[in-house]
Amino acid sequence: MNDLIPHLKALISVPGLSGYEAPVRTLIEEAWRPLTDEISTSRLGSLHALRRGTGPDPRPSLLLAAHMDAIGLIVTGLSGEFLHITEVGGVDARVLPGQLVTIHGRQELSGVIVQPPSHLLPPNNRQGPVLLENLLIDTGLDAEELARLVRPGDLVSFAQSPIELYGDMLVGHTLDDRAGVAALTYCLSALQGRQLDWDIWFVATSQEEENFAGAITSGYQLRPSLAIAIDVTFASAPGSPAHETFPMGKGPTLGWGPNIHPSLYLAFKNLAERLEISYKTQVIPRHSGTDAYALQIAAEGVPTMVIGIPLRYMHTPVEMISSKDVVRTGRLLAEFAASLELDFLETWSWDE
Amino acid sequence: MHTTNESNQTPQVGAGQTSLLERLCNASAVSGDEHEVRQIVIQELQPYAQAIKIDSLGNVLVTREGRGTNRLRVMVAAHMDEAGFILTNDEDDGIYRFEVVGGMDVRFLLGKLVWVGRSHTPGVIGAKPVHLLTSEEKKKTITLDSLRIDLGPGNGNQSKIGERAVFATPFIHLGNSLRARALDNRLGVATLIELVKHPPDNIDLLAAFTVQEEVGTRGASIAGYSLNPDLAFVLDCTSAYDLPAWDDSENSQYNTQLGAGPAIHIAHKPSLSDPRLVRHLEQTAKVENIPYQIRQPGSVSTDTGTIHKQRSGIPSVTVSVPGRYLHSPASLCRLSDWQFTLALIHAALARLTPQVLATER
Q1: CB of B241 within 8 A of CB of B327?
Q2: Catalytically annotated residue among B22, B36, B82, B213
Q3: Which CATH class is domain A4-70+173-345?
Q4: Is the model's pLDDT at B1 over the cut of 50?
Q5: B95-119 CB burial, b ≥16 within 10 A, e <16
């Protein structure tokens, strides 16, 4: 797949806030439809795409999940020429002043998030970062026009355009986790023409940033034999603690901890070493903060794995990734899917 | 839109002028490195001026002589520079420590795209992920020394310490508003370019496109001295704080308001405007039916601060286009305020006579 960067740039150029993923889902569906055998949308908005295996019915199945929803903002009210906002997903209010946004009202409007001068703020917020509840959006429109076009509940997306930096670096908002979606697209391309024993479900999940509702319900509906969450992880960067971060451009991370089945971790570790794909082990002591947390306890339970793509400045509009890491992740997933034999699960043991 | 260069015709803000403003706003000109804006100014004015002088600090000085006798020598100044950043230390692998040049609230810096150097190489000022913040960190204003400009690993050392950087915010029309980085003071520069293209012929127009205003009105100081005018007008962009108060109480400290016309400065900390020039501007506005507002007196620095103290004193006044969110990634102004500012200053110059300064202060 040569057009990974254009694909990923397209993915982060369309909106799709948690619960309202339709615009990005349409784009992903267009990319995946020619590469899969069937495709549908779940009741809560996840996209389910199947590469059918050739093993005898009933076949085991692998679910690959990357969440397509984005963090952003939502309009809570109007004050004259200005909009009040709150968050969708985990937004860091400190990065908001001066940020350009798109308001999805009766028509799309461009706006800028502004912090009022201190004398206009409540006495408890006249120092330090301005709290989200005190930030405003200015669209440049007059009050009457604004009231005609915007109402409470309208969604607000970050407007930062994707930017390619020197080398293979890409900057933009919502690379968390459209980079994971792009890794799945890469995986699908790499599997073209290859025979698979297992069914492989490619799932772009909804609502991960709010409540994991997409992964919870897709896991129940699809009942996979194994599930892997592909999400971004913290890359080493100025201001981020070294012990909690992983180098960018040096391959994906393989998660290890209670959300991860140890045999699945070992299978990936051995595969990465055999393929000479560089990786780092990421110890995840508790909640992984990924779809694996939900998938693991879907129905009667699913062995799960977490694969991370290192990303700088997570949940800001200037997230940064190395496209090489996306490719490595997609390739590792494709090789894993292709390597699955019908008796794979029977080779596992808890007595190691 | 065709622009005519006939004198004495009131210049208008049309498509040509906004497109020039867009080029000016998208150019990078952090105090001390005004090259990009200076090039645009020179390119625009070359066909209109016999001589364009660039002085020892980089000010662009252009004279357009009028006709007849008893002409006043009138300086009109607009600063070309803007607040921004300068790379100070190369910490390897595309990471640079930087300093702020000019006044900037550090709370605007997190999570922004910047352009570095004259190549406008993209980079980012990142932030520690919200997931990893302690509750103490969430409450504190970030300090500049904890921030870096990140050009991406392996940027091949294309950028060097000493290069300037600015927020990478594109210019855009929004209804009757304009939004861009550095409206302060590309609005003044664009206005002064129109004056040089359409100078009233009752005066000698001494146009000064100044440097280093944001770091102490340095350029205006030597421009005021060397032009040695009879009086001076400064064109700038001043803050509008016309936002709602948290409890919906009246906002009595708005400084200026968008949509209320050009803001005449009467008193700001480093200079007291010459009352005769304030009166002249107000009378002109009334005669010409141009809306205007008085900027609420209070501390702000403009080029009049140093110009009025040059030689044995130069009567001076500042007229500003009101703008919200100056010195931030994206400032915002009303098109009509710019149009009325251009109309007011042009009419005020055209109505100037030596009599204005002959009256009592």
Answers
A1: no
A2: B213
A3: alpha beta
A4: no
A5: bbbbebbbebeebbbbbbbbbbbee
pTM assigned to the model = 0.95
Domains of chain A by residue range? 4-70+173-345, 72-158
Task: List B residues 4-63 in contact with A (Cβ-Cβ < 8 A).
Answer: none
Instruction: Give domain B84-167's CATH architecture.
Output: Beta Barrel (2.40)
CA B80 to CA B104: how far, in whole Å?
17
How far does A274 lie from chain B, in Å, by closest CA?
A: 27
Size of interface A-B (CB pairs under 8 A): 190
Radius of gyration of chain A (CA): 21
Q: A333: which 2 tokens? A: 């997933």
User: Which chain A residue has its CA at the smallest distance from B159's CA?
Assistant: A166
What distance in Å separates the CA atoms of residue B20 and residue B27, rounded to the nearest whole number? 11
Residue A294 distance to chain B (closest CA, Å): 19
Beta strand ranges found along chain A (DSSP E): 38-41, 47-51, 61-67, 72-79, 82-88, 100-104, 108-114, 136-138, 155-158, 163-164, 169-172, 199-205, 226-234, 253-256, 280-283, 304-312, 319-322
Return the CATH class of domain A72-158: mainly beta
Q: Which two tokens stand for residue A192?
A: 């073209």
CA-to-CA distance for B214 and B186, rounded, in angstroms? 13
ipTM: 0.94
B133, B155, B248 member nearest A166 (Cβ): B155
Q: Is beta strand B172-174 parallel, antiparallel or unpaired with respect to B267-268?
A: unpaired
Q: Convert the pLDDT of each residue in A211-241 to its tens digit.
A: 999 999 999 999 999 999 999 999 999 999 9
Nearest Cα to Cα of residue A94 among A143, A59, A134: A134
- In degrees to the nearest 10, what's the CA dihedral of A32, A34, A36, A40? 60
B279 touches chain A (CB under 8 A): no
Element (H, E) at B203: strand B203-210
- List, in sequence order, the alpha helices (H) in A223-276: 262-275
pLDDT at B158: 75
Asked if omega into B185 is within 30° of 0 (cis), the reply is yes
CATH number of B15-82+181-246+254-358: 3.40.630.10
B169 and chain A in contact, CB less than 8 A: yes
Q: Which residue from A94, A122, A145 is facing B142, i.e. has the nearest CB?
A: A94
Reduced to 3 states (helix: H, G, I; strand: E, B; else coil), residue A283 is: strand
pLDDT, position A351: 67
The domains of chain B are located at 15-82+181-246+254-358, 84-167
CA atoms of B59 and B191, how far apart (whole Å)? 16
Residue B213 annotated among the catalytic residues of the structure: yes
Tell me how many degrees the CA angle A248-A14-A180 measures, rounded to the nearest 5. Answer: 35
Mean pLDDT of B230-255: 96
